[in-house]
Fold:
Amino acid sequence: MIPDNLSDYYRLHARFFDMSRWSFLFGRNSLPKLFPTLRKQAQILDLGCGTGKHLKQLVQQYPQASITGIDLSEDMMGKIPVHIKERVDLINEEYTIESFEENQFDLILASYSLSMFSELNNGLIAIKKHLKPDGYILVLDFDSTPHPWFSTWMAQNHVHFKDRLFKHLKEVFATKKTESKKAYFGLYTYTAFLGINSK
Ligand SMILES: C[S@@+](CC[C@H](N)C(=O)[O-])C[C@H]1O[C@@H](n2cnc3c(N)ncnc32)[C@H](O)[C@@H]1O
Structure:
């Protein structure tokens, strides 16, 4: 039985997230290749930071930046290594338009989190508001699948293919770079999108 509520879902899955997700959340290790050049004291948000994989990469790449992670799951955030926790600001709440000020961030990164939003449109409106003009958005996520059964199975695991996330991202943000790859011989594609808040 899969819990309806995302926070309850991760109460269980946080226990084995880091040892299991390498097998289907592809592209995360190479995401830093798409990290943009930022001013030294940039403000960065990791939206749906989970167990902190990208927080670690961000700390390494941007040593002087002010880095914030937000996630609704206390259990996932509980797995963030202590030395990363000491270096970043962490907020344990659902990301909404109220979470931050307008024009706050130079970069918002969202890895495999936006596909879990029950209201994607609200998430994109919030990101647009929280990004500075010409700020960057970097999204890595599930993109599409030709198999309805897989889409149904993933929806039960809180991942929504039907939202056409990358189509919406390209409408809202100017595309700087985008890369798509197939997983498991075409079972699904995943995409990395780097956009600019200039539209
Ligand atoms: C698949 S995990 C990915 C974690 C991490 N970004 C990574 O790539 O390893 C998705 C995370 O997004 C969080 N999440 C999903 N929707 C959220 C929302 N609306 N607000 C805050 N966190 C959210 C979940 O709690 C979960 O920890």
